[in-house]
Amino acid sequence: xxxxxxxxxxxxxxxxxxxxxxxxxxxxxxxxxxxxxxxxxxxxxxxxxxxxxxxxxxxxxxxxxxxxxxxxxxxxxxxxxxxxxxxxxxxxxxxxxxxxxxxxxxxxxxxxxxxxxxxxxxxxxxxxxxxxxxxxxxxxxxxxxxxxxxxxxxxxxxxxxxxxxxxxxxxxxxxxxxxxxxxxxxxxxxxxxxxxxxxxxxxxxxxxxxxxxxxxxxxxxxxxxxxxxxxxxx
Length: 234
What we know:
CATH architecture: 3-Layer(aba) Sandwich
Strand content: 15-25%
CATH topology: Rossmann fold
Number of domains: 1
Radius of gyration: 17 Å
Shape: globular
Number of strands: 7
CATH superfamily: NAD(P)-binding Rossmann-like Domain
Number of helices: 6
């Protein structure tokens, strides 16, 4: 039980999976969650080739009760939750006059309210263990663009939410960081990774960043981090 236990939402693919890989290789106990049970099981099978200290949970971050149950399951297996990475998200990119109300709601409920649900469900564990909360936002959380109204709104919200939560939780020695990645090689928004993505950040690069953050001095709090590819694909 002296090992650190990490809960990663949206951990079956992309950035979440990359973070899980790196942390497992470095001795952490890892729980990943997602909405698709089959994808979670497949990811856990692959991750167990690295370490058997991994578990998968079907949870929809839009549902607070799901997140509460997810945290309870992690505690029942690993005994505690030390670190939470709120990574689950989706993007629908349309001009505002073409965006449907349900598409807007999906992004707000998943990308923003989901982050709140994940932190709310785990906050007492983090306070008890002087833990760490990390949200994965996006450079779209500080830079707006055409066809991005819904996605921008959700990610701007994640940045503001996480930084305000940092002020609330630092009194309990809980660290809080929001990471704003640029373009990442992943299946996000239906992308199929290929050679055309070679210029992008790899998911495991974000995992290495998370590892570095967790290794910092207890006195140091990197509250907001932007990370982008060195060059662009243009």
